[in-house]
Amino acid sequence: MASVSLEGVSKRFKATRAVESISLTVADGEFFALLGPSGCGKTTLLRLVAGFETPDAGTVRLANEIVGAPGFALPPEERRVGMVFQSYALWPHMSVAENVAFALRVRRVGSDERRRRVASALAMVGLEGMAKRRPHELSGGQRQRVALARCLAVRPAIVLLDEPLANLDVHLREAMQQEFARFHREIGATFIYVTHDQAEAMALASRVAVMNDGRVEQAAAPQALYREPATEMVARFVGHGMVVPVEVIGREGPRTLVDLWGVRIAVRGEGNAGEHRSLCLHAENLVLTSMTTAAIQGRVVASAYQGAATVLTIQPNAADAPQLRVEYASAPPAVGAAVAVAVRDGFIIRNVA
Amino acid sequence: MANAYSAGAYSAVKKRSSWGPEDALIVALAIYLVLFAVWPLARLFYEALLPGRDGEVLGVLLAQWRAPAAQAALINTVEASALATLVSVAIGVIVAFMLVLTDIRSKAALTFVALLPLLVPSQITALAWIELSSSSMLAPLGLAPAPGTTNPLYSKWGIVLVMGIEHSTLVFLAVQAGLRNLPRDLVEAARLGGARPLRVARSVILPMALPAILAGAALAFVTSIGNFGIPALLGIPGRYTMLTTLIYQHLQGFGPRVLGEVAALALGLAALAVVGLLLRSIVVRKFMSEAGSAPLEPFQLGRGRAWIEAPLWIMLVVIAVMPLLALLASSFAPALGVPLRFDTVTLANYRFALLEQGATLRAFGNSILLAFTTALISAAVALPLAYLATLRQSRIARALDAVADAPYAVPGTVLAIAIILVFLPPLPLLKISLYGTIGIILVAYLARFLALVLRPTMAAMSLINKNLDEAAQIAGASIWMRLRAVVLPAVSPSVMAGALLIFMTALNELTVSALLWSTGSETLGVVVFALQYEGNSPAAAAVAAISVAMTLGLAASVTALGRRLPEGVVPWQA
């Protein structure tokens, strides 16, 4: 039972509120991601779980035991969690094998058992032949694997990962993502993964908490974050959502009818007639159409070729309207051309704007 | 039920963790620094600021400073130090400009010679100059003083010359660092504007190097104020008294009962030093820029190069090498004034100093023991202190780190008086006084030299990623294990260099031990001083020659470590 649960946790650094009254529970064996822009408090939250910071308010529980509360933090060395740092934090004066063996030596694991576990941890990350190397002789990806092996060798029930892939190039990042998913399946520990990359969080985690300004905006499965964002920030941060103002007209079957710049559209989400709300749109919900009614009239202001599709930026004619992004597969209209956009789907964000 | 269980676990853990080993370590370090640094210096202030016997406010201070002798010593100190600083600036600036800005050859050898005075302790420099000025080496030049006349170095101008040369290295190092940080494009812009090298040096480089020159000058001035070895060897026989020698003579003459009065004099000395250091910190903070772009391209001297190189070599050899050769020659001479020839070379002085005089051999033992113990303990204190101040970001540790500078920044004489004030009374519980034992010298050295190992350790520690320590913490390692297995291996070259620096400095220390020694606890510095004072200068030269040899050997080992150290750790490798 290695669940992690936070209850009303706050942490300030001088004037800045790094973490503000956060309550979260991560179930035993779950792969959980903390996602947010830099400075949103996600790393502070992870460090509160690791024991490097003491909360100013609230409690931190590991496996139902209180390990952090105001004025008290069980030191990290007694929490028995594993952690992978963004900088990898490999000890430069130790070989790969010594790095991996260090925690086992601290825990007085016998030398035969130690050797076996170091070998199996290195085998697991595919670095069998590298045991004698020093960290500076390894590539970035290899160092990342050593850091992971070092963390896995102690068989922790909770693994904390602080932006582990941020220093790797794009190709390595994708390969390592698959590795992380495999390790999680194989060892069954609780993973808490901090990242600012929404695609990474969505690909890996079964649940993601989106953080902003020290608060959790929404904690949900990736599909829910994408399809049913709770706040405008989540809508914009996850999947490049667009947020536009609408007025609710009424229900139409399972859908809700709204007015967007004088165009009636049916979308998902709840709302009462007459309410002014925000609507989340994704590029794939929008299509160019030849209709002149029931479509948003606008003008192409930019066009970016992206291989499979061209992303068009369209400025609607309505006053003060934000720009829309539309994916277009065939030969796109020229910049400056007048176009009409039909809205196929959207989600009414719960919070009243 | 679950809540009750959790609450129980929480309070049980809370009891255990509210007072961690880290807190205990901070408290221990705080006690160490308060005991050795804060309390003695505060006590000095207190004694010096006491009311006089008749209850006059600041009576002690006023009574001391009303005395003509004190006022004369103050004037002499400021005058000689200021003039010596001018000498230091002249030498330091010339050498630094030549070495950095021109393409003269064998720069490494020139730098080594220019920095020799830094490695030779000041009482030995003074002794070497005495030997040089009275030696037969000068006879062919017609410069040797006539027999029977007083040596001209026993005067204000002697002190100014020798002190100026001794501290020229401080200006040289400051200016060298300043010139290396000058942005190259500014010089290139001036040259594109049509200025010739000499014009560029005068109109662009010199004004921009001025803050560095001022900073080096302030440091040379403060060091001159606190210097004891040179005024002691040149000023006491020449009846030119400076504050350090006045305090020394007071305490020698009247013993610890005049401590309060001496403290008042020491406070004046400390105030002078603080003014100098404040000036320096203002200059450094306001005008010194961080490392600039690419370093300056040296000016091509062309065919005139030899005409620059030769005078530079001659000057450096005369001021740095000749005195040491005279010292060596004197140590092999059969008696004072006898010319050294192949048939008169003798080891008698070495034999006398090492074998026949118990004090000298004892002094070697004492100084080595003191230097070794001070280096070891200071390194052991600096490691956790720097760790807590940087990697753990403890505010208390950072304050302690700043405090550790004070006993090194004040003149050694001031620190010695402060230490006597606190450690003269018998220690509580033990009922014995450290005064009159080697213990009080050790205490003073521990206070004075901690900064020498703390600076390089802090520099190295601030380059370590905090995560390395945190990763070991996550792995379950206690603070002791982390210090040993993770932190120490990462900073050991710097700690080692700092410890060697302490060993070198403490081995030849005179200023502090001159006030604290007693029979049985003589140091090498004291013995050289005493032998010379007694008129046995060949024996003094022999002892000095051995300590210079030891110092140069140690300097070589620090230099060997130098390649593995962060920039600025080894003072002579700026």
Write the layout of secondary structure elements.
The complex is a heterodimer of chains A (353) and B (574).
Chain A: E1 4-13, E2 16-26, E3 31-35, H1 42-50, E4 57-62, E5 65-69, E6 72-73, E7 82-84, H2 96-106, H3 111-124, H4 140-152, E8 158-162, H5 170-187, E9 190-195, H6 198-204, E10 207-212, E11 215-220, H7 222-227, H8 232-237, E12 242-252, E13 255-260, E14 263-267, E15 276-281, E16 286-289, E17 296-305, E18 310-316, E19 324-328, E20 338-343, E21 347-348
Parallel strand pairs in A: 3-9, 3-10, 7-8, 8-9
Antiparallel strand pairs in A: 1-2, 1-4, 4-5, 5-6, 10-11, 12-13, 12-15, 13-14, 15-21, 16-20, 17-18, 17-20, 18-19
Helix pairs in contact in A: 2-3, 2-4, 3-4
Chain B: H1 2-17, H2 21-48, H3 59-66, H4 68-101, H5 107-119, H6 122-134, H7 156-166, H8 168-181, H9 184-192, H10 197-226, H11 229-235, H12 243-254, H13 259-287, H14 305-332, H15 348-356, H16 358-390, H17 395-403, H18 406-409, H19 412-423, H20 438-461, H21 466-474, H22 479-507, H23 511-516, H24 524-533, H25 537-562
